[in-house]
Amino acid sequence: MITFNKVHFSYPKKEIFKDVNFKIDKGEFVFLIGESGTGKTTLLRMINMELVPRIGEVTVAEFNTNSIKKPEIPLLRRKIGFVFQDFKLLNDRNVFDNVALPLYLSGVKPAYIKKKVFNVLNEVGVFDSYRKMPEELSGGEQQRVSIARAIVNEPLVLIADEPTGNLDPFVSFEIIKLLLSINYKGTAVLVATHNYEIVKKLRSKRLMQIKDKKVFEVVLKD
Ligand SMILES: Nc1ncnc2c1ncn2[C@@H]1O[C@H](COP(=O)(O)OP(=O)(O)O)[C@@H](O)[C@H]1O
Ligand SMILES: [Mg+2]
Predict the structure, then answer these.
(1) Residue 83: which H helix or E strand, with range?
(2) Which of 15, 41, 210 to mutate to test the pocket of ligand 1 (most atoms within 8 A of CB)?
(3) Is 126 helix (H, G, I), strand (E, B) or coil?
(4) 8 Å CB contact between 40 and 192
(5) Contact partners, residue 64, CB within 8 Å, separation at least 6
(6) How far apart are CA 44 and CA 85, in angstroms?
(7) Ligand 1 in reach of 39 Cβ (< 6 A)
(8) Would you place residue 186 in the very low, low, confident or very high pLDDT band (cuts 50, 70, 90)?
(9) Is 41 near ligand 1, meaning CB less than 6 Å away?
């Protein structure tokens, strides 16, 4: 579903990736680790096709960085749910409206929107807060809302860039458990993190590491 084929990527004055190759299949759960500045966010933005390889290609579902046309970009983005370290909720809208927004943008009928948003808020555990404004919520609750917004369009893959970076250890683990439960229902999940405590706890999950401008599969030993 996601393929990096001989991918090289550089910013104007900095080479980030040199011959990166991997695949992520439908329904997989993958952790992406790497020291700060190694290129985790860059790699995720290549999946979104905000950034394109200098050499090689990235394929996501039926889209490919070498052949995607500008009008197809929104179709690609609809297949990808994004969650960030700093939540990026709209502070002038309540929880319901934050989660409903991607559906409005997709032109979905209002009756369906209501049903779907309440379902998703229930799934992530913030149903009772649907009228609250983001600033009335704790960090963990805000991240739950941002996860709801990311899955409301039923994406093929949920991508989380340091989703626990602003949260304490207990809340962090609760958020990871939520991502796991979303994965159990069939959505592929890719989590970039430098939270090694969590990665160690979930050592049975697939682990990819960015190191020396490449991506390696890692197996943790007991
Ligand atoms: N737009 C950009 N222009 C130039 N350099 C960048 C840009 N974005 C990130 N970088 C640099 O590329 C490297 C990788 O960044 P990033 O992908 O954000 O790493 P990570 O998410 O692993 O911390 C860092 O050294 C960063 O400073
Ligand atoms: Mg980053």
Answers:
(1) strand 80-84
(2) 41
(3) coil
(4) yes
(5) 57, 58
(6) 13
(7) yes
(8) very high
(9) yes
Residues in the chain: 222
Task: Identify residues whose C-beta is under 5 A from ligand 2, the ion.
Answer: 40-41
Q: Distances from the Cα of 201 to the Cαs of 41, 143, 176, 219, in angstroms?
A: 23, 21, 11, 13
The identity of residue 153, as a single letter, is: N
Cα-atom radius of gyration of the chain, to the nearest Å? 17
CB-based contact 122:151 (threshold 8 Å)? no
The two structure tokens encoding residue 53: 């390889």
The rounded Å distance from CA 36 to ligand 1 centre is 9
Q: CA separation (Å) from 69 to 9, 58, 73? A: 20, 14, 7
**Cβ of residue 37 lying under 6 Å from some atom of ligand 1:** yes
**For residue range 109-155, what is the model confidence (pLDDT) as tens digits?**
999 999 999 999 999 999 999 999 999 999 999 999 999 999 999 99
- Backbone phi, then psi, for 165, in 5-degree steps? -60, -25
